[in-house]
Amino acid sequence: VAIYLSLLGKEGFKKLSRLNWQRTEYAKERLQNITSVELVFPSKTTFNEFVVRLPRHADDVLVDLQQKGFDGGIALGRWYPELENHLLVSATELNTKEDIDSFASALKEVL
Predict the structure, then answer these.
(1) How far is 14 from 98, CA to CA, in rounded Å?
(2) What's the Cα-to-Cα distance from 111 to each of 73, 93, 99, rounded to whole Å?
(3) What pLDDT digit, counting tens, does each position of 22-81 carry?
(4) 3-class secondary-structure state, position 42
(5) Gyration radius from the chain CA atoms
(6) pTM of the predicted model, to two decimals?
(7) What does each C-alpha distance from 108 to 27, 35, 48 come to in angstroms?
């Protein structure tokens, strides 16, 4: 990580941070436009990760998403039983807008 960050430099790190924030905000917007998905902590201060509440058990949704070729995130019920329908989702510079759109479409289909 240290080598990667040093190669990015100060300006590259700022650019990467902005890109990650933009991708995460785009993903939040796309997912909360799905009728049955609720953003749990609606804040503009998220970075790379956010939590959504689903109408189904998150583990089941992840299985369905995996069958469509997506790693949908982390089901939080394993650590927090009261959050069994909650999913931790991540977006980074590696996720294009097209990737995010495809994921949102797949999530809508499986719900």
Answers:
(1) 23
(2) 15, 26, 18
(3) 999 999 999 999 999 999 987 777 889 999 999 999 999 999 999 999 999 999 999 999
(4) coil
(5) 15
(6) 0.90
(7) 13, 9, 21
Identify the residue whose tokens are 């479409």.
105
Q: Where are the alpha helices (DSSP H) in the chain?
A: 2-32, 58-67, 97-110
Query: Burial level of 65, CB count in 10 A (0-12/13-18/19+)?
Result: buried
C-alpha to C-alpha distances, 49 to 3, 6, 9, 10, 74, nearest whole angstrom: 24, 24, 24, 23, 10
The structure tokens listed for 63 are 């299985």
Long-range contacts formed by 36-43: CB under 8 A, 24+ apart: 36/111, 37/107, 37/111, 40/86
Rounded to an integer, what distance in angstroms lies between the CA atom of residue 111 and that of residue 37? 9
**For the chain, how far is it from start to end, CA to CA, in angstroms?**
37
Looking at the predicted structure, is the pLDDT value of residue 111 above 90? Answer: yes
Structure tokens at 22: 């933009």
Provide the token pair at 18: 């902005």
